[in-house]
Write a structure and sequence with these properties.
Number of helices: 9
Strand order of the largest sheet: 4-5-6-7
Distance between the termini: 10 Å
Largest sheet: 4 strands, antiparallel
Oligomer: single chain
Shape: globular
Strand content: 15-25%
């Protein structure tokens, strides 16, 4: 199933539950033109598996809430992710967003190389990647603490879309037993069904 199809299925499941409200939903499609534009400059493009995602969806904003579970997706557009803009015009890439001049080493050095794939709504947390790495990993960054996501990039994207960014999903994928954690999460399973085979 395509990224678009996975997300549409998840949103349909949310809409089928009366106690859940979708507060914001915006899907931007195909980034082919932006990817071609970025390719004309000396800018590190996102890794291939992320470009595959961006070719079908150029970022997603989704915010939903229920009485027992809520979630969000705030996946940046390819241009935002690749250009790595600072908070202030004169700053360095992602300065005062992922790192500050007070961030200790070695974290600061690692964070300076990263790009943001998703900025978690309502929190100072980010799903990031290093475009120079070929290891297929995402990193979860919270208050300069860097944690390696245990699922590969394609699995991570599929899980975020399958579960419509449900709050517990990002915690589950930080553990080696992520598949069991998701399967045993009764709230996730009640709404979305099983994660086996994702």
């Amino acid at each position: 199933m395509t990224s678009d199809g996975i997300l549409k299925s998840a949103i349909a499941k949310l809409k089928a539950i009366d106690e859940i409200s979708i507060d914001r939903q915006e899907v931007r499609y195909s980034a082919e033109e932006e990817i071609a534009f970025l390719g004309n400059y000396d800018i590190a493009l996102p890794p291939d598996e992320l470009l595959d995602f961006y070719r079908s969806m150029n970022g997603v904003t989704l915010l939903w809430s229920g009485s027992k579970l809520s979630g969000s997706l705030n996946i940046l557009q390819v241009m935002q992710s690749a250009l790595r803009g600072p908070l202030e015009d004169e700053g360095e890439p992602l300065e005062d967003i992922l790192w500050t001049k007070d961030t200790p080493e070695p974290e600061q050095g690692r964070l300076r190389k990263m790009s943001i794939f998703e900025s978690v709504a309502g929190r100072d947390d980010f799903l990031t990647y290093d475009a120079s790495e070929s290891n297929g990993q995402f990193y979860f960054v919270s208050n300069w603490k860097i944690q390696t996501v245990k699922t590969n990039r394609t699995q991570t994207i599929n899980l975020l879309l399958t579960y419509a960014g449900a709050d517990p999903i990002r915690e589950h994928i930080l553990h080696d037993d992520w598949e069991n954690r998701i399967a045993e999460d009764s709230l996730l399973q009640r709404i979305f069904g099983t994660a086996k085979g994702v």
